[in-house]
C-alpha cells in the first residue's frame, strides 16, 4: 500500500515497476510514457515523443504508423527513463490432439472452442 502510494506520488530515487501489453499494438507500451499518462510512474516527459505518438494515433497507413512508433521508441530508449531488467515470459505445452486453444497476451485461457481428437 505504501509502495504504490509513493510510486504514484513520484517519491523515490529508484523503484520497481511492471507493465505488460494487454492488446496487440505498440501503443499498449508507448501510451504508458506519454507526458500526461497517469501510468507514467517515471514522470518522464519528452514533447517529441508525445508528438510522434499523437501522429501514430491518427495515422491510417499501418507501415507509416509503425515507423512513427519506432521513432518514438528510439527516443524513449535513448533518454532511458527506465531500466528493463526482467521480461515476463509464458511457457506453453500443447498435445498434438488438442485444437482451438487461442493464445492470449494476458494468459487468459478460453476453453469454449477447444476440441480434442480422441483415438
Task: Describe what you observe in this structure.
With 119 residues, this protein is mostly helical. 34% of the residues lie in helices and 3% in strands. The chain contains 4 helices and 2 strands; from the N terminus they run ααααββ. A two-stranded antiparallel sheet has the order 1-2. Helix 3 (47-58) packs antiparallel against helix 4. The longest helix is centred in the middle third of the chain and has 18 residues, at 62-79. The chain is extended and about 60 Å long.
What layout of secondary structure does this protein have?
Layout: H1 2-8, H2 27-30, H3 47-58, H4 62-79, E1 98-99, E2 115-116
Antiparallel strand pairs: 1-2
Poorly predicted runs = none
Gross geometry: extended
Instruction: Give the biggest sheet.
Output: 2 strands, antiparallel
> What's the gyration radius in Å?
19 Å
**Count of strand segments:** 2
Percent of residues in helices comes to 25-40%
Distance between the termini: 53 Å
- Residue share in β-strands: under 5%
Strand order of the largest sheet: 1-2
The quaternary structure here is single chain
Mean pLDDT metric: 90
* Helix-strand makeup class: mainly alpha
Count of helical stretches:
4
Order of helices and strands: HHHHEE
Amino acid at each position: 500500500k505504501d509502495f504504490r502510494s509513493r510510486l504514484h506520488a513520484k517519491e523515490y530515487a529508484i523503484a520497481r515497476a511492471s507493465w505488460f501489453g494487454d492488446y496487440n499494438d505498440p501503443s499498449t507500451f508507448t501510451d504508458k510514457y506519454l507526458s500526461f499518462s497517469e501510468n507514467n510512474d517515471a514522470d518522464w516527459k519528452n514533447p517529441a515523443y508525445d508528438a510522434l505518438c499523437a501522429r501514430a494515433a491518427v495515422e491510417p497507413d499501418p507501415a507509416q504508423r509503425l515507423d512513427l512508433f519506432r521513432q518514438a521508441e528510439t527516443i524513449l530508449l535513448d533518454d532511458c527513463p527506465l531500466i528493463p531488467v526482467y521480461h515476463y515470459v509464458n511457457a506453453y505445452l500443447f498435445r498434438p490432439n488438442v485444437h482451438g486453444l487461442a493464445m492470449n497476451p494476458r494468459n487468459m485461457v478460453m476453453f469454449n472452442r477447444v476440441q480434442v481428437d480422441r483415438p
